[in-house]
Amino acid sequence: MPRQEDGSSGAVTRRRFIGLAAAAGAALAIPRRSFGASPTGPAGRGGRVSEYHLSPRVADVDLGPLGRRSLWTYDGRYPGPEIRVREGERVRVVVENALREPTSVHWHGLPVPNAMDGVPGLTQPPIAPGESFVYEFDATPAGSYIYHSHQGLQIDRGLFGPLVVEERSPHVAYHREYLVVLDDVLPGDPPDMARHDRDETARRDGSRRGMGGMMGGGMMGRGMMGMDGMRIMGSQGIPDYLALTMNGRPAADPPTFETRMGERIRLRFINPSGATTYRVWIAGHRMRVTHADGRPVRPVDVDAFDIAMGERYDVVIEAKNPGNWEITAAPQQGSPEPARGILRYVDARPVQPSGESSPRGRLLTLADLDALDAHESGGALSRDLEFVLSGGMMSTAWTMGGQVYPDADPVEIHKGERVRIVLRNMSMVLHPMHLHGHFFRVGRAWKDTVIVPAHMGEVALEFEARNPGRWFFHCHNAYHMETGMAREVRYVD
Ligand code: C2O
Ligand code: CU
Fold first, then answer.
1. Is the C-beta atom of 487 inside 6 A of ligand 1?
2. Closest ligand 1 atom to the C-alpha of 472?
3. What's the per-residue H, E or C state across the chain?
4. What are the pLDDT digits (tens) for 340-359?
């Protein structure tokens, strides 16, 4: 079967530095220990356990032209170190919390056992400062995933990294691959949503008593102000970001992705951003979308795609247009300049990168995604639910079915049920809705995160209830999640 044909193989290949562009420096997590486990034990089919260590801590990160910034990181790396394992392998990750706050790690997209899902207060107690927690699960199915903190707004401070589960036999051939990690960087601490809520309430009570108007700051217009007049959220209800980055590099110092004429390159785009959806395109090249949220799809050629918080898309490009070409990831909300990278043909004369200020041609749609592994047991629909997504106008609360998590009823389901959930978006912004512990069927695709478009957008998803536990279901905009747009999906018996 077509594997990466980069000349390396075996153990070296598996641990090779593969993903982040050369300029970004090494970002590969080397397992401290990798040992054979008892073949009769609970280890994966390969009988191996790969052990990794992650230490969440505050670090000074060099952001090139943006200077050094204090971010919350795994192991001092931004993005966090790459975890790369083979399909079916047993993975153990020891997380040692070196922050002054509690934390947790969630394996976004991987349907792990509930106790390993990393949602503090739902699947585990938070990991206290100085404490550690051992996560262990089977790496299946193959795909491009994200690991990230699930505590408060920590993901938007930098606590995330890529997790790749390599497939045994990819349905597409390629010569090399790169990870492309997109992020929005805050200028400092995230806005204090609790404080903001108190201020908003005070402001509204004030205006009701006829003394308002001084504080200013409607949400959709000029941005939201605290009582002290400080701007703490930008317009459109997302923070004012300092910059957008690709593999940790700002646009003024972009990462380089090298290729040679005639090669096929696989790019795994992942978006662990706090609140930014991107439109992605590559000057001079079309992209063949091969995987959505890590799951294989019938290859489809496009010129651009949108990727929201929590989503992943793998694409393959054919290098047959020598030069230096810009990879652009433009924010679909807010005003920071796009994240950029350079696709560089090493056998071409160095020239200024050519970019395109907007994509031309075909934009990927949900309807284009056609899952390759379509098999499912296809039981009869036994639970049909609907949630209206709302918020953003007069308050900072974002709601699901009119309720604000954690003051919200759990969604109760039974093992073996086939569940359908319709999501209707009554707000002015899109919501990438993510279900833990399950892939769901949306249209003809398998996904775990799906964009519910703004202004009356509607999406229906379906899944089989076969992974018991208490699962989080929420908007992957960190600020929407934090202020209520979430539910627990609970297996009851
Ligand atoms: Cu990416 Cu609730 O998670
Ligand atoms: Cu949202």
1. no
2. 2
3. CCCCCCCCCHHHHHHCCCCCCHHHCCCECCCCEEEECCCCCCCCCCCEEEEEEECEEEEEEECHHHCEEEEEEECCECCCCEEEEECCCEEEEEEECCCCCCECEEEECCCCCHHHCCCECCCECCECCCCEEEEEEECCCCEEEEEEECCCCHHHHCCEEEEEEECCCCCCCCCEEEEEEEEEECCCCCCCHHHHHHHHHHHHHHHHCCCCCCCCCCCCCCCEECCCCCEEECHHHCCCCCEEEECCEECCCCCEEEECCCCEEEEEEECCCCCCCEEEEECCCCEEEEEECCEEEEEEEECEEEECCCCEEEEEEECCCCCEEEEEEEECCCCCCCEEEEEEECCCCCCCCECCCCCCCCECCHHHCEECCCCCCCCCCCEEEEEEEEECCCCCCEEECCEECCECCCEEECCCCEEEEEEEECCCCCEEEEECCCCEEECEEEECEEEECCCCCEEEEEEECCCCCEEEEEECCHHHHHCCCEEEEEECC
4. 999 999 987 777 888 888 99
